[in-house]
Amino acid sequence: MTADEQVIEPESTEKATLRAWLAVAAVGLGVFVFTTTEMVPIGLLTTMSTDLGISEGVTGLTVTLYGVVAGLFAPILTTATRRLDRRTLLIAVLVIFVVGNVATAVSTNFTVLVASRLFTGFAHGVMWSISASIAVRLVPSAVSVRAIAVVFSGISIASVIGVPLGTLIGDAASWRVAFWVIAALGALTLIACIVLVPSLAPTSVLRLSDLPALLRRPTLRIAVTVTAVVVIGHFAAYTYVSPFLEQVSGIDRRWISLLLLAYGVAGVAGNFLASAVIARNLRTALIAFIVGLSSSITLLVLVGTWIPGVILFLLTWGIAYAALPVALQTFVFGAAPDAPEGATSLFIMSFNVAISLGALLGGLAIDSSGPSSVMWIGVGFGAVAALILLCSRRSAEKETA
Asked: Which pTM value belongs to this model?
């Protein structure tokens, strides 16, 4: 049975209760705040770099190093905490989140800022590793993909509200105030999870030494590889989309936060679009989303200063990218249904390390070749990811023929 077939759950007469969906939404809110704090420096690059007296490329390290810690430590910490009740673990990572963002808000120099970001990054990897597996345990199996979509809508909504709001706050007050607001939202999320999420006994007995065996599964290996490639490309481009829009497209900085807001709104649509189509043919949907992402970035660069085209292709970029986390997570679950948290920790490691590598690659490119170069990096990596999926699907078809 392939991963494409495994994600289609049988019909069930069970219905999720309102409290269950509220609990899923609380977990999704956790994904929202973590994604917001990871990505908000993208909209604050100029104000942060000015305040700290460093370049935009160096400021991008606050995204890069955060992603490295979140990714590399996700498998280690997820397996180390495998015996903890998942509710207890969820509450613990949210407490770390609040403390870490308060420390970021009061940072007095770049060193302290990076240290606080690394501290928060430890919790980030665990949050992403357990969030989807918690969500699917809260509802009947027939609606598990929908629960994953709700949780990962936190990523899109972070683009809609988190990053643009952080940018607006940073422009109006300071980037430090933006992180105070994020810490407050984290505290509210913590309260919601304490109230709504029930005790969930650990189900995994997976040890760190078992993870290499998981990676020997061809479908999971493909999922992790595709994730890494497409996310590197996306974040090489998106981390520096504000300088591109300002310097290449000629858009006034006052409008960029609104464009990022529109990008995020489109992303929410893409998130739920994914949940509607991936059950039919997961690999085809994944290829379509990746091709849509690369095509949108290509056309965004080609239209140059034609503002209606810039807006259109920025929105289609948002739709295509936001669909990917739901599709990729579902692909991962199908590849390792017996070890969802272990497989997800590898997925998250791939995802977050790719974010950091993408931001680093983009930072080097923008400092040396300008903002258009980062967009072409995104296009190239997206094309490679689509080719990997196409070739793996053809190989699977030949094996089953």
From this structure: 0.73
